[in-house]
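As described in the Methods, two query proteins were run sequentially through the folding procedure within a single session, without resetting any intermediate state between them. The first query and its resulting structure tokens are shown here.
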Amino acid sequence: MLKTHNPHNYSYINAYLEIHILGGIKFNNLERMRVTMSVQKPKSINVLRHSIDLYNDNMIEKLVRKIAERIEIGTSVTRKTLQELTAALEQYRMEELEREKEANQIQVEELSATEEQAAITFLKSKDLLKKTNELIGKSGVIGEETNRLLMYLIFTSRKTNNPLHCISLGSSGVGKTHLQSKVAELIPDEDKIEITVLSANAFYYFNRTELRNKLILIEDLDGAESVLYPLRELQSKKRITKTVVHKDRKGTTKTIHLTVEGPVSVAGCTTQESVYEDNSNRSFLLYIDESEEQDKKIMDYQRLLSAGKRNQKEEFESARFLRSVQRSLNTVSVRNPYAEYLTLPVSVFKPRRTNAHYLQFIEAITFYKQWQRKKKTDKETGEIYVETTIDDIQQANEIIKEVLLRKSDLITGAARNHLERLKTYLKDNEQTTFTNAEIRKQLHIKESTLRGYHKQLQEEGYIKRVKKKKTKSYCFEIVDMKEYDWLRASIDNALKGCLQQIELGLVAN
């Protein structure tokens, strides 16, 4: 009897009454059923119009008497009709909400036995990380060999109890978002949430477990400033809680707690490293390759794509296979029996948090290699786990070396990139000094940007202002051309020292 084909005018007609719901009903606020209705006898022109909450029993009783009096019909018939109407509207609303939920729900792709076996065979293969990196390249990620593998492993860590996070940094237009989105294509859709803009309270209204072990992708951190605080809390505490005031059906005001649980893995892109320091401290910082060689690789790829000579079927199949690999990874704990021997260089910035990231990254590699390890069971807790090997640590050291190097630097990544370009320019031209005007012209840098770099480099003691004897004019000079090489060597030695400590420990035992 309830007809809803017109979303602005539902009709409900029986032998006694004809009722129209003007403007339809709302699908939120399930504790209310607020409607505006017109009531009349079939084919009658005597109409009663009224707004009412069908869930309010006192209002219903008053309406029943009003309809009976105005339309001249029995109260029992009217009451029964309104009860039937309320039940029909309630059922319709629940069906529509369920239909909407199914439409918005991401379909989880089930692997066939053949696909699952192929993925497991791949995960058991020798040189797994090397083969994975090659597949990432075949999927359409051009260059960025270290960054792309590092990002893929960080995204994989979402399935662990201690996920990792990353922020991609670089100048505007160098491909930060492209790299993140291409690597994210290798993660199953049901395991990720992509965000462009979010309101300040949006995170608190996810279902309690909706974000658990998800990868949260933020296209640009500048567009998500309002949610950076709850994101940081999700990263650190693995849950967020908000207390709000809520009215129940009876109108009684109550305080309720909205809790959303993690853990989550968070990835974002920005050009402003210093602005998001609190988030950067919780994340791996991936500096995009802005070299001329990388420019050439990308432009060659663009030309091949435009000419139709790029094998897009191979890209699609490689990405699909890596998604199958991700679906074949099971939840399992990781234990690192060598953790006590792993110490970071003293030069690393914020060593406590960086040390945790280092250990978690080793665990992420072990987790990814779970099909190559014998599963063990803790006799006391019953926990199933796999153990880290020395090979895992060696591979982690190779991949993470650049990250630790950047973490040990006193200047921002943009200033470091500029300083290294500056060193190369001076070396190629056999110079020791330079001026702002010269560098701005030769390296094609805006004046405001260049002055910002040089101000930071001066304050940190990387360059100094000197006076030329002949012209009495001022110029700049790099204080130590090899300081970055020394820093790199100290990190290399520290990581090698960790492995030596492990070997000595094994010999002693």
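Immediately afterward, the second query was submitted; its sequence and tokens are:
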Amino acid sequence: MTETADAPVRPRVVLGVGGGIAAYKACEVLRRLTESGHAVRVVPTEGALKFVGAATFEALSGQPVHTDVFSDVPSVQHVRLGQDADLVVVAPATANLLAKAAHGLADDLLTNTLLTARCPVLLVPAMHTEMWEHPATRANVALLRSRGVVVAEPASGRLTGKDTGKGRLPEPAEIVELARLLLERPDALPRDLEGRHVVVSAGGTREPLDPVRFLGNRSSGRQGFALARVAAQRGARVTLVAAHTADLVPPAGVDVERAGTAAELRDAVHRAAKDADAVVMAAAVADFRPTALAPHKIKKTDRDPDPVELTRNADVLAELVRARRDGQVVVGFAAETGDDGADVLAYGRAKLARKGCDLLVVNAVGDGRAFEVEDNAGWLLSSDGTETPLPHGSKARLASAVWDAVERWFRG
């Protein structure tokens, strides 16, 4: 595909597809990448084409599909594909493909491409649990990661046949989010959180008024899910306490606890935080709840309705700061709007001082910012006085900056 002089240069992605049943999900990965402006060349294995035909990949990508090094020999594509790529993603990466990549075998176009790539490489495993847990596979994964290859954590769930367990391919949306993150920031996923337990809260709480209505907020949970996803891919054991999250699919490799109200979220976070190395409060916790819950739907009448009396909810972030153990890092979030009295950053500084947390992410909200959108921006404030701008980008990119700062706190 040729880029014109006036057209923006599109990121060039090689999408490798291994020969596993999850190969059908690569079609959705391909669709999402192309629709978001990436130029994608699909390089399947012969085994992958037994699950999805070449015509499907060609129709979705607009690019030819080859599996061997003897197709289109004049272009030397077994070298050029890897040299020219901005990112190589292999999904699914079977146990066989991981072994070949770890030991430098090159018996088809995809494995040759992996040897010539000097861009970020993302391998997304999919296999049965026994294969993922086999010492040979674990050694291959460790070897690849030691070389800087990003080997994603697989999801848990239904596998082939009646089996369930760890080894399921993450959902296409998650794979694309990781791919976008590596294109934005190639060093975003080091394995620097291994051996750590982190707790992340996400989404908006809902405080019931009657069996039908509630008091809530606009938080979608996307930022909290991105924080959990990035932490898991950086090696942490992650507990995600999720309030209402717009039907988001839980990130791969993450333990999820559900909470509805502020009180439920408070209890779940405090339980999980007892042995956590870091707690990140990204959830939008309601400040108030109705004092009384109406047992029946409040009916519309001709007279004015009774006023709703509110009770203040507990300040979960402040409680976590008071209860934190030695070495535990506590991170807060502040969704702010400026006014005639002060700007967003000034309100963020005041909240950091008031709450006493180690780090505070400040987001300006409103007008399509922060809530219910894919991207984010803001500032990262530290209790040591450091203030770091967080440039506009994906919520996964912002999450990677937060974990960078947390890891620096771990190192003192």
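The domain at 197-410 is CATH 3.40.50.10300 (Rossmann fold). We note this only descriptively and draw no conclusion about the first query from it.
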